[in-house]
Protein 1
Amino acid sequence: MPGERIVISDVVPQVDCGRWPAKACVGDRVSIAATIVRDGHEPLRAVVRHRKGRARWREEPLRFLGSDRYAGSFPVDAVGRWQFEIEAWVDRHAAWLDEHDRKVAAGQTDLAGELAEGEALFGPGDLEDWRAAADALGTEERPGAARGGPLPVEVERERARAGAWYELFPRSWGGLRAVAEVVPALAEHGFDVLYLPPIHPIGVTNRKGRNNAEHAEAGDVGSPWAIGAAEGGHDAIDPRLGDEDDLAALVEALRAHGMELALDLALQASPDHPWLGEHPEWFQHRPDGSLKYAENPPKRYQDIHNFDWDTKDRKGLWEAFRAVVLRWCEAGVTVFRVDNPHTKPIPFWEWLIAEVRKRHPETVFLSEAFTRPALTTLLAKAGFSQSYTYFTWKNTKPELVELVEQLRVWSPYLRPNLWPNTPDILHATLQQGGRPAFECRLVLAATLSPSYGIYSGYERCENVPVRSGS
Amino acid sequence: MPGERIVISDVVPQVDCGRWPAKACVGDRVSIAATIVRDGHEPLRAVVRHRKGRARWREEPLRFLGSDRYAGSFPVDAVGRWQFEIEAWVDRHAAWLDEHDRKVAAGQTDLAGELAEGEALFGPGDLEDWRAAADALGTEERPGAARGGPLPVEVERERARAGAWYELFPRSWGGLRAVAEVVPALAEHGFDVLYLPPIHPIGVTNRKGRNNAEHAEAGDVGSPWAIGAAEGGHDAIDPRLGDEDDLAALVEALRAHGMELALDLALQASPDHPWLGEHPEWFQHRPDGSLKYAENPPKRYQDIHNFDWDTKDRKGLWEAFRAVVLRWCEAGVTVFRVDNPHTKPIPFWEWLIAEVRKRHPETVFLSEAFTRPALTTLLAKAGFSQSYTYFTWKNTKPELVELVEQLRVWSPYLRPNLWPNTPDILHATLQQGGRPAFECRLVLAATLSPSYGIYSGYERCENVPVRSGS
């Protein structure tokens, strides 16, 4: 014979029936609500039970909103995976008092049977005693209690939600040491996160030229996203930018000014990446054994090789990237901006982010998911702290209203980070709108979302496109 | 390391994350849709797999709607509990052809590597062979297939959704034999279901008088909902209405005219119900051992005793009602109109309806849930075929629009049955609107929902209220 007389449903926050966690930050009270239904008319009581990990459950009361809906909240005071569940039961003490009072109000006097019931319920005493005890008894005694949940909530630190980002290419500024010198000025302007594109050695084979030219000229430095050379791969620093000590000095300068360092995580390799020799099975090959380069037909990216996510050594590949991320965490990196995460498997991200947070729970991950909405949101659900959005291309009022409405719907699991420009995106509005456009777009980015960022040069209204119309 | 690269979500129809079944009728194609996401850009294929009970799975293809959304349908050809699930995989054959054709279109000619890949994928042959084979191979080979579901669908016969009902009190027409004589006329008018309020013996102790007067006068027949007397309880026929043969004759008359019989199922007892003596533990008592009567303070219903759903003999009580329902099923009753189901436990209804359908899968249950929306819908989810609605009180255009919008939202699990009047509800619109109001309300009931019904007298526009303003 089936279960509970009390049925709990429509619990929020809830992402895909609890498959993924809702998101919150340390210091929040997580607002929850649920529909709680039982046959008949007796009053119900309900609480939200909550805990971090396997800690002891605590609880907070829910209040009745009307129409079988209840709401409440619980505080989260530490990063990590929390869970909550709803517990509801009949408040027989309140029910008895309510029925009794309605009868008295209607002038009924033959209440001996009712008072005997009251004594059986409350124990010896009179009406005054019972009224005084009703609230406590109604909380303690939980006849027919039913539970709904548990449901997960991922709690991160505040930086996962709110922050002002500044992006720069360290080679344009003279390397990591020189960048450290501008940290006080960046902090003065209110930036919280300094984001550097890949700082690893850049491949020389098939190196691209300026503005994506197919062949590099002498002296062309190549794309920082073509990762890997004789000097090392994803775990190395390009010696032209500095060394471990320079990175440590930059991290220390940022820390001293209340800022933190974000590195790029771009999971692809130049033809000179050490792993091509050490782990050829991690890369895509043709049937004749030759290595494939990246392409999006008819476009070809001969300076890039993609990893083969269907490799037979999936464990080895995944663990290698875990080691890369942990290596940078240990060097003081607290934020990762992930390049094109939508071209790598979702289960990989879910695993990687959880693994990194086991050891460095403060780590923040920004998803550069400029892709279809279902995939953008799935990456957010799978663990990314925050996500780029299409803000960069949304300039008219109707476009912005639509964007913000969409972000509101996604808000239980996707936190936006709005960028008016990036190294490779300069919208026509900025190319043609002059200083007023730059000011307007910055204010919109900084006020429509708690996280926003700019690419260096924005503050000088640099508005010259690579080509007219690009 | 976690699971599938393909993530299936937002599958419809889906009621409370699959806790309850969606509803369909024999002969339907059940429309389904799902969001299916994988990293990257390779084309996916998907099917819906479906089966009744534990039968072999069958499948139908899904079509791509755009934006990672897929849709399809499957046929249901028998009553019972069905289930469906989504299966999706990468179509590597279509992906290869697509990439190849984009390269050719871009004028690329060095495609030896691509063709070697093609041969590895398709087997020996040329492009023509591969194109011809692509569709079949893409269906047969299912690399990395992922599944979403299964989700339940309860399939009933068409009468669960569509039918015209006529309600009458057989004692006003001269008993069951006399009612059998009017069946041809009812069938002629297009009615599908004849619904009789309780036909059981009526209690005499504390019998109510006319129009709910507290004391009966000599000759008052009492309320048919005060069930049980010396002649028997829920499984007996009031001898004043007829006997088993008369009921069988009525059932046969209905069957001969393509109609069926609906009985009332009212789970309450008069003070003279045989079960009060046989099973006192099934009823509510005060601490002094005295029997409680039904009340909704300050109202008292001294002619009614409610069952104690918290009885220690829950099994006995539930099984007794199962026996009652099966007894009437065996007498040819195929439809039950359930009185006040919202004052009995939801798990009881879920169990009872499933138990009855094991033996009589054609049985239809109508819920008289004039209660809060969350409880009305929960009864529908728990198994009732169809439900009364607030149509009776919705008369203005805005009220009707709101009602129909609400019914549309509920349509995956709640089937409405619209009644312009009932034995105890005659809205002011009908009291004051004359024949035009009766005609208008009948057309609305019959066209806003596939199921509707009237209480006898409606066809003669009987519009005299018990009291002015009642």
Note: Chain A touches chain B through 57 residues (CB under 8 Å).
Protein 2
Amino acid sequence: MSATRSLDPDPPSGRSPSFGDVAHLGHVELLTPELEASARCFTSVLGLREVGRDATHAFLRGESEYELAGLTLTAADQAGIGHLGLRTSSAEALARRVEAVLAAGLPGQWVEDGFGHGPAFRFTGPSGHPTELYWETERYAAPEADRPPAKDRLGRRGTAGIDVRRLDHINLLAPDVSAAASLAWSALGATLLDEIVDDVGVMAGAFTTFGQRPLELVYTRDPYGAAGRLHHVAFWVDTREEVLRAADIFVDHGIQIEVPPAQHTIGRSFFLYGFEPGGNRIEITTGADLVLDPDPPTRTWTAAERRRGVGWGTTFPASWGAYGTPDVRAE
Amino acid sequence: MSATRSLDPDPPSGRSPSFGDVAHLGHVELLTPELEASARCFTSVLGLREVGRDATHAFLRGESEYELAGLTLTAADQAGIGHLGLRTSSAEALARRVEAVLAAGLPGQWVEDGFGHGPAFRFTGPSGHPTELYWETERYAAPEADRPPAKDRLGRRGTAGIDVRRLDHINLLAPDVSAAASLAWSALGATLLDEIVDDVGVMAGAFTTFGQRPLELVYTRDPYGAAGRLHHVAFWVDTREEVLRAADIFVDHGIQIEVPPAQHTIGRSFFLYGFEPGGNRIEITTGADLVLDPDPPTRTWTAAERRRGVGWGTTFPASWGAYGTPDVRAE
Amino acid sequence: MSATRSLDPDPPSGRSPSFGDVAHLGHVELLTPELEASARCFTSVLGLREVGRDATHAFLRGESEYELAGLTLTAADQAGIGHLGLRTSSAEALARRVEAVLAAGLPGQWVEDGFGHGPAFRFTGPSGHPTELYWETERYAAPEADRPPAKDRLGRRGTAGIDVRRLDHINLLAPDVSAAASLAWSALGATLLDEIVDDVGVMAGAFTTFGQRPLELVYTRDPYGAAGRLHHVAFWVDTREEVLRAADIFVDHGIQIEVPPAQHTIGRSFFLYGFEPGGNRIEITTGADLVLDPDPPTRTWTAAERRRGVGWGTTFPASWGAYGTPDVRAE
Amino acid sequence: MSATRSLDPDPPSGRSPSFGDVAHLGHVELLTPELEASARCFTSVLGLREVGRDATHAFLRGESEYELAGLTLTAADQAGIGHLGLRTSSAEALARRVEAVLAAGLPGQWVEDGFGHGPAFRFTGPSGHPTELYWETERYAAPEADRPPAKDRLGRRGTAGIDVRRLDHINLLAPDVSAAASLAWSALGATLLDEIVDDVGVMAGAFTTFGQRPLELVYTRDPYGAAGRLHHVAFWVDTREEVLRAADIFVDHGIQIEVPPAQHTIGRSFFLYGFEPGGNRIEITTGADLVLDPDPPTRTWTAAERRRGVGWGTTFPASWGAYGTPDVRAE
């Protein structure tokens, strides 16, 4: 399809042969120059709960996360992403994925001190984002104050704000989307469901998943060719009504909205984009179609198709294509 | 239609000739033996905001109420209703309604110290509920912390819990529904949209309105023949999704649900019933059809029709017909 | 406030002294050069039901309309509005409003052959739109095939498409908004809830209502200074979810979307704009805040405030300000 | 846990070692003594589309099904289930599952003439339900009239009725739930997420999944000890609002509602139960929590816990425990 992809020995397409070894995106570490304000936004506006805190970190969870914390905030000079964590399906699956990463020529190291999970293999792929693979994890056991009435629930609803239920997906900016997607497909077992190919045939976007959700790990092209930057991190709510209510809450609590609620075409999710006080772009999302097909063909979207807008005709502001964290735009 | 109604010289039917003089239900005073717990429920679970407080009262408002406080909680030995307040459409309309109440042979007196409004004429009708008529009122001006970004909003959303927007309606228990409805129709200008007539032809329920909502002031027959008791007070949310979310929040915060979310036939509203810690029944409601017809015929529902259940077939538990506040069931 | 308004002896502000005499917007006649295609759109896509038809007209109703037909389609050379009908609250109210129209120096005539209603007084106000006032009307009695199971419903749901429930409001383009709004306020009893004032102090938008909905009869300035043109006619659905679903249905059935679902600030309604095949702009709307206040202050919005976008930041495409029917843009 | 389970050499618990080999429930064949009426219900009320028809069958699909037909209706003397079809993840996975079924001592045969899919291995497990395993399938390619505007959609929305999007899950009645669940776990790779254990420790319900949805293949105990009967088949809509709208449509189109919309505890889905004209119980469902955990512990629910009602306190009518198809209740 693209010049870049033809260089790959094993270009990503459809379901990865290693599908299933990575179970899901487990956690994201966001960097913020405004730790207090960011923590306040994620707790009182998004409704996450704090499960750990030290001078430079806040560990936060959504009510339906079975692990301890889907989000870590870390004080830093600049906004951006610290790392992302991927939980594997078993200890054996972890061993296989580590082997595959090493076989791809990527160095890495075992990290022992992750919050809420066991040993993690940390490496940095071609997109420049530190990534952890881990199997052992700590399941959340609600303290009395958060204990729900029935055992299918993990915590209580409605404490504050938008009441997001869990971390959903992450969109990373990559200097070379094809290289990033290829590694995700070949070494991590990510299925490539959708790709955007630009006017000269180069992959500009890759939408990959580890399960039945239509996207979990998304790479789009960094407009500055930089490595390691974040486009956005997305949090799940159960209904589109909650996305609409979230927009009211963003407005009423001073969280800048970048794109008001609208519908994506790729993934068919309903969304709202804004910026947390540290500067990172966040998405409130719901409603995507599940992918039940075990052999899903990769859909290729041309740049022309994308220029028509998404969903019901929504077009994005210029910032959506230009801004990421850390911000590298010329002052 | 019923034996009782035939005794009325001017039985209520359809729109009252005085329609429009009372503008809307303005506020309700609930009595509670558990003031602190009740106030906590209405603020942290329902999401009302406290605008005033003293040793025996809490004054609370929903975000979209243009007046100061739609709900007053008053410490008392027993749960129940202290009074309800009806705002008139003008000073002249107030004078007309006071005259009509007096002409109906009901004594009353002017009360000067109401929270958030001007002089009120207080009387007790045949149903035994203290009722105030008032015109002058204080409009809510949000303090900095609650100030919304645009002038069409009165306050901020999402501070806590269910985030109800305003007081909606009240359902009073009356020993003689027909007498209560007749006074509401003839002296207060309430339109009778729906009535329930029992198997022997006596009015057992009267659904009246002062505007275009399908119900505002509802009388149903007191199963114990008592006067002055409360069936429930209802708070509005904008969407059925918020009623469903409210059910989660009730469950997760220990607010007993009496009837899970379902659909009414009369009024076509969507509802959830539960009990606040003081023992009063509360409803979370939305979605009723507006009544645009200026000459709406009264619909008569037979007891047989009511036994079929409401909406999509929901039947009510025994408590719904038997319980009111104060509770007068034999110990 | 504005130069134009200061010329009025009795400028519109807040509730009209004649409030209540007009009960509600009853029906709208749309002109269409594509009668068949328009009728198909309104029935199979919007879900209205045909209750009458001849060679040049289709008479259509929403399921919850108590009158016979909220919408008439009339074959014509150009798209636009034929007339609008306002139902009064009584025969006496009709007489008063006719007297007021005549007193304002506007000629008019009684029309006897309206579909589904009795004699109507037809006049054309300063905005150039033929307007009917009527009291007698025919209530819809469902034929067997449309008979609902309970008497609070007027028809059946779910036959097709979006399943709109009723006509909601109309937005007319006027060469002189202040003059149009003044007549509506003084002669028709419309309350002015919101006005837009342009940068030189002239009224550019007037949002008026005959009841508790935040808008029913809206005038905005005709960009071409023309008279008698239509901006849009709006149909009500009960939930925001149905507006979102409507967007899918518009896309899937070839109905061009002009503005994807978003939130208005004025009126706080949720909306979707598109074009029916005849060229008239239509809105699918829900969710507006009711106006319970009997003495609502008129809110004045500056052009600067309006330029910030509506609701959660949505800005309108150029067509929204430029296009009306009939289309008078230079070829 | 239960007497029955202790007899199993390899009792089902959590994720199956064969997880992933079966991709998802692909189709269900319902038997109906009222083929025409059933087909009309599934098309005009549920909104499925007919993709094939002969004298004794109707083949139907939901708009988001990538395969040809999720539902087959077959004329028969009695209501019930003809068979269910499970699509595997690959040809190899199919071979492995067939081998496992044979190794479990169950006879089976290859069937070549399935509508819309390739060769299927058909067997009948201990629950008595004919079950097909298949890999090759025909993907739906929309004809012009159903072609959607963007390539992420498979068909058009809003043609009629509830507009369900796809087959979701099936609940079978089994004489021995533990035996049925054990086979599903060991031979089919189903994960056991939830089980109900009765007061004497016998498994009375098993909720199993092949992917991330909380339930796909459910077994509950047949109250008559019969084999091969159906409790219900469930169809997916995207939002809870659509379940509520479905209830209106059921009522308005004469589809009997058994349980009005409410919330399940197990699976946390939102539901509505009714009966199609052939007598089979159908569910409209949405909203379940996804199971991201690759190692989910089986939750055990006691009969006492179940007696408390589901979700927000909903209790089921007696028919829910007593009725299945074919109906074997004594006349």
Note: The interface with chain D takes residues 240-241, 244, 247-248, 250-251, 257, 260-263, 270, 272, 311-314 of chain B (CB under 8 Å).
